[in-house]
Amino acid sequence: NRKSWSAHPQPTVAGVFTQKGPYKIIRHPMYTGVLLAASGMLADNPTTGSFFAFVLLFFVFYLKITLEEKMLCSRFPDYKAYQCKTKRLIPGLW
Predict the structure, then answer these.
(1) 14 has pLDDT over 90
(2) Residue (of 86, 80, 77, 76) closest to 24 by Cα position
(3) Which of 52, 3, 62, 51 shows the shortest CA–CA distance to 28?
(4) Average pLDDT rounded to a whole number, residues 83-94
(5) To the nearest whole number, what is the mean pLDDT of the chain?
(6) pTM of the entire structure?
(7) How many CA atoms does the CB half-sphere of 6 hold within 13 Å?
(8) Burial profile 38-77: b = 16 or more Cβ within 10 angstroms, e = fewer
(9) Would you place residue 4 in the very low, low, confident or very high pLDDT band (cuts 50, 70, 90)?
């Protein structure tokens, strides 16, 4: 549901909990997509600055995910079980 998309980690009023599509494999597919694109840019331009920009982006996403998941657990009772069976960003790893 596009109305539930937001740049802010807090679940929106219209937000729904889903385990369909890419959410079957990972909990944060949009963050994974952005990090994949950023890693491609880093590989294309491997400078110290681009490396630190990637690390900063990863750190910001890690903080957002941590905060977001606390709120999702509070809002959706089934989210904790979903966390146990689904990885955050990398299927099968993390």
Answers:
(1) no
(2) 86
(3) 62
(4) 90
(5) 89
(6) 0.81
(7) 13
(8) beeebeeeeeeeeeeebeebbeebeeebeebbeebeeeee
(9) low
CB 35 within 8 A of CB 49: no
**CA neighbor of 9 nearest in space, from 90, 57, 63:** 63
- Report residue 86 as tokens: 């689904």
Q: Are 87 and 27 in contact (CB under 8 A)?
A: yes
Residue 87 has pLDDT above 70, yes or no: yes
Q: Are 1 and 10 in contact (CB under 8 A)?
A: no
Distance CA(79)–CA(60), nearest Å, equals 22
pLDDT at 12 over 90: no
Q: What is the dihedral of CA 68, 15, 90, 41, to 10 degrees?
A: -90
The one-letter amino acid code at 2 reads: R
